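Example record for the data management plan.
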Amino acid sequence: MTPGRTLGSMYGVGIGWRPEISGFVADLPGLRFTEVIAESVPATGPLPEPLTALRDRGVAVVPHGVRLSLGGAEPVDPARVRHLATAAERLGAPLVSEHIAFVRAGGLEAGHLLPLPRSREAVDAVVANVARAQAELPVPIALEPIAALFDWPDDELTEAEFLTEILDRTGAGLLLDVANVYANARNRGIDPVDLLDHLPLERVAYVHVAGGAEHDGLYHDTHTHAVPEPVLDLVTGLCERHRPPALMLERDGTYPPAATLRAELDAIAAASGYPVMT
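Corresponding structural encoding:
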């Protein structure tokens, strides 16, 4: 394995840092890993005190970008790349992460992560933009495949082929979201385990785990619902194949009581075989 593709050691189970639950995150015993939305990290001035405290006590804080538009036909915005680089430096991050998706085209902002056609042209676009970002970033980058509510027609590659070619050509790590794997498989009517069996799992930098809900016949990756049992089963299946350095619970709204959040973390620990945080 190329050094720097992963966190480098076993960090166990963590949770995404959000201002609304910063107190809960700060009080978690044994926490070694968290993630913050990169665009929420100020480039200048003081960092949020809870983030500074986590960093200073040795918790790995990973900036997770949502607006680079690595899959766009246009080159990535240098200012956005610089902001991601600055966030990594200010947080002492071991790596950064972003999505294999596009969020803008022709000067218009979608306000949402949009899926790419699984074509060789799209692979070339992602590879070029990742290279542009890597040239400015002080740390390695991990790439996350998104949950998609539709597929483009006439795809040239399977999802596994598409992801593997991007990873091979960029040298990036893989941020594997098992909730996205479940959502895509359920909406396509296929077996999610089949994707796990065709991905280079040794490239996994860390893992997202999240909840979702069905609406009008489609499963939506909401990050506001409890993690369902099938997603926890995928966590177990993943860890039986290759143990990732860290797994992270994603919640982005409708935050439940602390006891419920803690129970979700314990369930992820049980599914992965990592010890419960104490």
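Summary line stored alongside the record: The chain has nine helices and twelve strands.
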